[in-house]
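User: Study the shape:
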Amino acid sequence: MKTSWIRAAIVALTALTNPALAEEAGFLRSLRGTWSGTGTITMRIGSSPLNVFCDFETKAAGTSLAMRGSCRGLVVVHRTVSADIQATGPRYSGTYLGPSGVPSKLLGTRTGNSIDLAVRWGRKINGDHSAKMTIEKVGGNRLRLRTIDRDLKTGTDVVTSDIRLTRYH
């Protein structure tokens, strides 16, 4: 109990000296909770999207956010996913562990209610190591997670995951 009080005091003092950190901490706190929803995941560009049901638990402490979850599709597909991100001023960085099971790097910024991240895959996905990811707060109790990859054959952007979640306290 005493440790959490000390941690809260440190966060409050940091907020007084750096309003940008306080703003990011407040935004990340607004993402805390238990989330469930549906969406689609495309395992490889050119393949048919798979309908999935996902559950996430999101925790925020100061300027850090941790997301832990899983997505299920059909009877046989079950994937654990997680993200750990940290805000340093307006910049976000962290790691993502997706269906490939290989950690990937995240780097980006927040614009309004959306954290826009460049993904550097830990191994080649769809022919390269890069994609885009957004974590978007929609209203008070909805969240949209999207990953966009480039089709190297056509040069067009392809949505490879689009998950829409609702918070259940």
